[in-house]
Amino acid sequence: MNKHPMFCILALSLVLPGAASGQDLAGTLKKIKDNGTIVLGVRESSVPFSYHDDDQKPIGYAVDICRRVVEAVKTRIGVSDLKVEYVPANANNRIPLMANGTIDLECASTSNLEERQKVVAFSITHFVSNIRAIVRKDAPYKTLKDLNGKAIAVIPGMTSLPLLLKYAVDNKVSFERIPGKDVAEAFLLFQTQRAEAFVFDDVLLASMVANSPPPHGYRMLDDTLRSEPNALMMRKDDGPFKELVDATMLTMIKSGELEALYSKWFMQPIPPHGINLNFPISKELRDALANPNDKGV
User: Fold this and answer.
1) For residue 187, how far is the Cα from the chain centroid?
2) What is each CA distance from 60 to 32, 207, 253, in whole angstroms?
3) Does a structural domain hold residue 295?
4) Whether residue 138 is found in the same domain as residue 122
5) 216 and 249 share a domain?
6) How far is CA 109 from CA 60, 74, 128, 260, in A?
7) Is 39 helix (H, G, I), strand (E, B) or coil?
8) One domain, residues 9 and 117
9) What one-character-per-residue DSSP string does 139-176 give?
10) How sure is the predictor about 13, in pLDDT bands with cuts at 50, 70 and 90?
11) Which of 30, 85, 128, 181 has the most CB atoms in a 10 Å sphere around its CB?
């Protein structure tokens, strides 16, 4: 699943053909055709991947990718008036909702982790998040090592915390950990100077900064604790559906459509408040788009 040429074959064999008969379908595709509905799992506030606009309608980068998949599904199963249902899915229930058949495809920024691959499957990568630290623009810190002995805002239960602890051991430094229950609280601890830095996913840090006054008062350190591929999530061991999803995304990558979507959601003003994240494509994501794969970490 990691070879680019194979995706080219999938794109030709799965996206271009017409409808399949009911007897040719199995798994998720058969479920969708039998029900006349595809169920997409979406987030309510994961900006800019999957969130609600002012009308409480799902929008975002990952949602747009899923809508292209929906069009491919319509062609594959021969149902032009296929209904689309959106079901809220969060970090705690997304995998159970997938496993029990409630949702057919999750449209968000879920990290493709090898541990998760034991119970669910992932599409090829659509984003790569980096675990990084944000500091105030006028702070003297250049690297994480410079924060030795300083307070850092963290969120217990997130992968960023054990990665930070490992960094401390490996580099013989120590940090005072100031816990926040969620992104908003941890950012507030940092923003109000109870912590000198906040360690988390870079794109979510950028989102918090863009929505905070002054948006240019912060900067990220270059250190990356880990890069995590993000992808659409689906049921495990459903080859035909995964192949269709991957082929659709590969077509988007090759045509430039995926990069155009990235620009729309990460480099331009987005609803509902016209905030521009100003978050250019990273080297890691460019590498992932140049060599499409579904490899986890």
Assistant:
1) 20
2) 23, 13, 17
3) no
4) no
5) no
6) 10, 24, 9, 18
7) strand
8) yes
9) ----SGGGGTTSEEEE-TTSTHHHHHHHHHHHTT---E
10) very low
11) 128
The pLDDT value recorded for residue 44 is: 85
Residue-level pLDDT at 15: 45
In angstroms, the Cα distances linking 220 to 41, 174, 188 are 31, 20, 16
Kindly state whether residues 14 and 109 are assigned to the same domain.
yes
Examine residue 42 and state whether it is found in any structural domain, yes or no.
Answer: yes
Q: Are residues 29 and 120 in the same domain?
A: yes
Task: Looking at the structure, tell me whether residues 67 and 157 fall in a common domain.
Answer: no
* Domain ranges, residue 169: 130-227
pTM above 0.85, yes or no: no
- What is the average pLDDT value for the chain, to the nearest integer? 91
Q: What is the CATH number of the domain that holds 120?
A: 3.40.190.10
pLDDT in tens, 67-104: 999 999 999 999 999 999 999 998 779 999 999 999 99
Residue range 124-145: mean pLDDT, rounded: 96
Looking at the domain assignment, is residue 205 inside a domain?
Answer: yes
Residue 2 neighbours by CB under 8 Å, 6+ apart? 291, 293, 294, 295
pLDDT at 20: 66
Cα separation of 10 and 83, whole Å? 25
Name the residue among 33, 34, 51 with its Cα closest to residue 42. Answer: 51
Q: Which of the 8 DSSP states describes residue 245?
A: H
* Bridge-based pairing state of the strands 197-201 and 127-136: antiparallel
Q: Tell me how many domains the chain contains.
A: 2
